[in-house]
Design goal:
Blueprint lengths: L30 E7 L2 E6 L3 H4 L5 E5 L1 E3 L3 E5 L5 E11 L3 H6 L3 E9 L8 E7 L5 E11 L5 E8 L5 H8 L16 H4 L7 E4 L11 H9 L3 E8 L21 E5 L1 H13 L3 E4 L1 H19 L9 E2 L12 H14 L5 E5 L14 E5 L6 H11 L6 H11 L10 E5 L1
Parallel strand pairs: 1-18, 3-12, 3-14, 4-11, 14-17, 15-16
Antiparallel strand pairs: 1-2, 5-6, 6-7, 7-10, 8-9, 9-10, 12-13, 13-16, 17-18
Helix pairs in contact: 6-8, 7-8
């Protein structure tokens, strides 16, 4: 059973020197390992991607934008407190939270919590547009997991929280980079097509794209669509249990539009490959049929109730992918939604039945991670158990760079 998979079987040696601390410059100069079939591997530069994708492919990207989620403040005693904003609490909607003026509440991780049991912290910040802003933070109480609810209030009150966090915080680069955020990360740790604020980590497979690559895709007539998954800190959560059945998968918010669903339905009906840019895009695409099955069974279900559970994809219930996507499209249209917002905790591991994704661009992931399980699952669908290890060994042998700022893979069926 999938739940009996041992995470220790998805380990590999990753020398510290192989972790990329900074991206290539330009970003599309990074290397690209291309796997077209079991045992068929080529080595390219990422800028060649447009020529390497099938001409009839539909490429789907995650347009989420990383926020300056880490805020450092000091108590009057001098103790430094770091607040890491995870997700909005009041208002709960991301767009409304970033548009909030005067105050809002967030679910946060708090560094040096033992020094901040009560009281309000205060910080004065110079605004890029000129003038100053005063930001206050009040600890309200515990939230699920190791998080806490924090109220932010600021003056001038007419400023939006997007402006506030942009001025007061800084980009939360991954902990495994083992360095502080630098000024260059404000650009490097965003995709060139990022638009919708809300992530606390970048969809890193998209970091390799440049305007040159996007122009090359357009010139070849490769269609590109966007969706939104706001990446949470849980993406770095290690699997601490021996078996993955005992691991709690993190929940992330996704948003999709009717035009995206129309493109997916057309691609699937006509047999065109759907290529996902990164594991966040994969998680969204593979969650959509399960969301569609829900609304087909219960058309009156409120959008706020739409959620894919961790093990829902393994329940053995019949699922027609195209019919499910059409049901989800009808749900969006009937309610006049500009976009459907839902959430997913889907676990994709060997044994998962893939419905939408037929190829992916992805980075090289941490040992014993759920992201590595996802990649292994994709490769094993073509009857090549353990192929992930062969590809990773090949990349290590050929001096590829690993993790967020590292090199990339293109995996095709």
């Amino acid at each position: 059973m999938v739940s009996d998979i041992r995470i220790a079987d998805y380990d590999y040696p990753l020398p510290d020197g192989r972790i990329a601390r900074h991206p290539c410059s330009p970003r599309d100069a990074c290397r690209l390992l291309v796997r077209t079939a079991p045992g068929a591997v080529g080595h390219h530069d990422f800028r060649e991607l447009p020529e390497l994708l099938p001409a009839d492919a539909l490429l789907v990207c995650n347009n989420t934008r990383v926020i300056n989620a880490r805020v450092k403040m000091r108590k009057p005693t001098g103790a430094q407190i770091e607040i890491f904003c995870l997700e909005p609490a009041e208002p709960r909607d991301y767009a409304q939270a970033f548009a909030a003026t005067g105050e809002c509440e967030w679910i946060c991780l708090v560094g040096n919590l033992k020094r901040w049991k009560e009281g309000t912290l205060q910080k004065t910040v110079q605004l890029p547009s000129g003038g100053c802003m005063t930001l206050c933070a009040t600890l309200l109480g515990p939230a699920p997991g190791r998080a806490y609810r924090v109220r932010f209030a600021w003056t001038p009150a007419e400023l939006t929280f997007a402006t506030v966090i942009g001025a007061a915080g800084y980009i939360p680069i991954p902990p495994y980079l083992c360095r502080d955020s630098e000024q260059t990360d404000a650009v490097d740790y965003q995709t060139v097509y990022s638009r919708i604020e809300g992530s606390v980590a970048a969809p890193t497979a998209g970091l390799h794209f440049t305007d040159r690559v996007l122009s090359g895709l357009e010139a070849r007539g490769i269609k590109r669509e966007e969706l939104t998954l706001h990446v949470g800190a849980g993406t770095f959560q290690p699997v601490k249990s021996e078996k993955i059945g005992d691991h709690t998968m993190h929940t992330e918010v996704v948003s999709v539009t009717a035009p995206l669903l129309e493109s997916l339905i057309e691609a699937l009906e006509e047999g065109h490959p759907v290529i996902a840019t990164g594991t966040t895009t994969v998680r969204t695409l593979e969650s959509l049929p399960y969301l569609g099955r829900k609304v087909a069974a219960e058309p009156g279900l409120a959008p706020g109730k739409l959620h894919v559970e961790q093990w829902e994809a393994y329940d053995g219930k019949p699922l027609d992918t195209v019919m499910a996507l059409k049901a989800l499209h009808g749900y969006i249209e009937s309610r006049g939604l500009a976009a459907l917002t839902a959430s997913t905790a889907i676990m994709i591991a060997p044994g998962f039945h893939w419905h939408v994704t037929s190829g992916m661009v992805t980075n090289f992931h941490q040992p014993q991670s759920t992201l590595l399980l996802l990649v292994a699952s994709f490769l094993e669908r073509t009857g090549a158990p353990g192929e992930w290890r062969e590809l990773y060994d090949e990349a290590l042998t050929r001096d590829y760079r690993f993790l967020s700022y590292g090199d990339a893979m293109l995996l095709l069926k």
